[in-house]
Amino acid sequence: MKIRTLCLMGIIPVFLLLGLSISIFVCYFEYRETMWGLHESASSMVVTTSEFFFGTPFEHLYSKQTNKKQREELLKPLYTAVRYKNFQWIFAYSFYDESLVYSITQEEGQVFPEQDFAGIARQLKDQDVIFSSVQTTTDNQKFIRAYRTVYDTKYQPSGIVGVQLDANILRENLSKSIKQSLKGSTLCLIAGLLCSLFISKILKRDIDVLNINYDENISSLAKLDLKDSKTSFIREIRDLSNTFETMFSVLKTVMTNSWQNILDVELLRSERDIAKKYKNICMNKNRLKNRTIYFLSEIINPDRMDIFSDFFEYNTHIYCLFGRIIPVENDLQTTLSISSMITFFKINIQKESTSQAIEKTLQLYPCSDFQLLEWEEDNRQLLLHVYNPSTHLCESRQLEFQNGKMKVFHNLCMEAEKRIALYLKTYYQKQTQGEKNMSEKISEETFLLPLRAEELMNKMTSLSKEYADASGGVIVLTLKLK
Questions:
Q1: Residue 386: beta bridge partners?
Q2: What is the DSSP letter of 291?
Q3: Which residues on neighbouring strands pair with residue 5, listed in sequence order?
């Protein structure tokens, strides 16, 4: 009985703690994800509304010369939006009249808590969109609000556009999470009870073997050989030890599986984890080959989110761009900025020259380092475009490139460059005459090596690994095919 009690007291609290921990995680992250969804919906609506009324339309709203029919025509799209139950109230405040220019609600006569537009305007000086906390009306209904500044034709702040969103889903989701958590905790308790009963049964069986009845068996014990009794005793102790190890192994397996389940549903993933996953899936193109050229690239330190490298083809051109973007708020935002920058460049390269596309791209997405290799399939020419952050200019030039030759480009630190340069010079046989480097780096050497392109890339990567933590970077290797 004592054994069973000890197992119940020792094992059930572990399962109970496990169930409670999982329940807390589920409730917290469910609330956080729901709040994020509400913010995204409110933000999208308030940004769309402010852009819709940018300039002249907003001036017409607060102008006394605008009649009722014209006002209704301007506000017609907003009445469509309010049909969705989530949007309770869409409104705009004018700085000129210091009053609401329009107020559209789902039901006529609805009254909502007042707001301090002067304080909201002060906050909007530093932020594009701001959100209120979750508030409650007199009839116990929850809501949140989002605000954004709207500007006149001279791009001067003329008012505030706001949207109120139904937030009762927070209460509903929390209620569902609590019910699910109670079910989960109950299952954990049942599992702990069954596990403790199973283990106590095993322990009791093994300990009963050791509980020798001395009164009944003393004579037989006296006849036993001492060595045999010692051997038997040691064997029993070992079996008991194995039983305890089995118990701990079962508990460890349960804990490991539970923790893995939490990770599998991404409850504990940070923004950095999401950024790395996104980069591996969507931005991991490091090989491109056609009938005339072979491009390879390798990011030396993949943990650095500000480093980028990408290949793509358009018409008869192949583009390889690599460098470092200036980091923004966090790793996730930095990764998304890189993705947006590459997409923006791809769109512009279809409309304008390469230099103009680079200039426009870097105006929107500042980079501390930007290099672009452009391969012209028709002329079989390789162009190098290097952006200079100090002058904000892009230097471009054509490189001589012979069949069967390789070129190496990189943006690594000087220490890594010395090692790569030493390695290349060791195997260097011939360099094309007339080439001049645009910098001190050995970024445009043409050489013949006894190694294949893949092997050479692996060698240069390994030579640069120990300096990756300091600055990281990208190595790009090109091979002109015969």
A1: 371, 395
A2: S
A3: none
Please state the φ and ψ torsions of residue 322, each to the nearest 5 degrees.
-155, 160
CB 350 within 8 Å of CB 296: no
Continuous segment of H or E residues that includes residue 480: strand 474-480
**Helix (DSSP H) and strand (DSSP E) numbers for the chain:** 12, 16
Q: Are 87 and 165 in contact (CB under 8 A)?
A: yes
Beta strands in 333-421 (DSSP E): 367-376, 381-388, 393-399, 406-410
Contact 457, 390 (CB under 8 A): no
pTM over 0.85: no
**Least confident residue range of 152-166, 181-195, 259-273, 339-353:** 259-273
What local confidence, expressed as pLDDT, does residue 440 receive? 47
Neighbours of 38 (CB within 10 A): 22
How are beta strands 135-136 and 99-105 bridged, if at all?
Answer: unpaired
Q: d(Cα 16, Cα 2) in Å, to the nearest integer?
A: 21
Tens of pLDDT, residue by residue over 195-239, are 666 666 666 665 555 554 444 554 554 554 544 444 555 565 666
C-alpha span between 186 and 278 (Å, rounded): 37
Residue with tokens 């993949």: 302
Long-range CB contacts (< 8 A, 24+ apart) of 104-111?
Answer: 104/75, 104/78, 104/79, 106/82
Highest averaged pLDDT of the listed ranges 31-35, 292-296, 426-430: 292-296
Tokens of 358: 């680079």
pLDDT at 330 over 80: yes
Long-range contacts of 288-294 (CB under 8 A, 24+ apart): 288/313, 288/318, 288/320, 290/318, 290/377, 291/481, 292/375, 292/377, 292/380, 292/480, 292/481, 293/318, 293/375, 293/382, 293/478, 293/479, 293/480, 293/481, 294/453, 294/478, 294/479, 294/481
As to burial, measured by CB atoms within 10 angstroms (0-12 exposed, 13-18 middle, 19+ buried), residue 118 is exposed
Written as one letter, the residue type at 186 is T
Take residue 253 and report the two structure tokens written for it.
């397996």
Q: What is the dihedral of CA 459, 465, 470, 475, to 10 degrees?
A: 30
Which pLDDT tens digit goes with each residue over 404-456?
A: 778 888 888 888 888 888 887 776 544 444 444 444 455 555 666 666 778 88
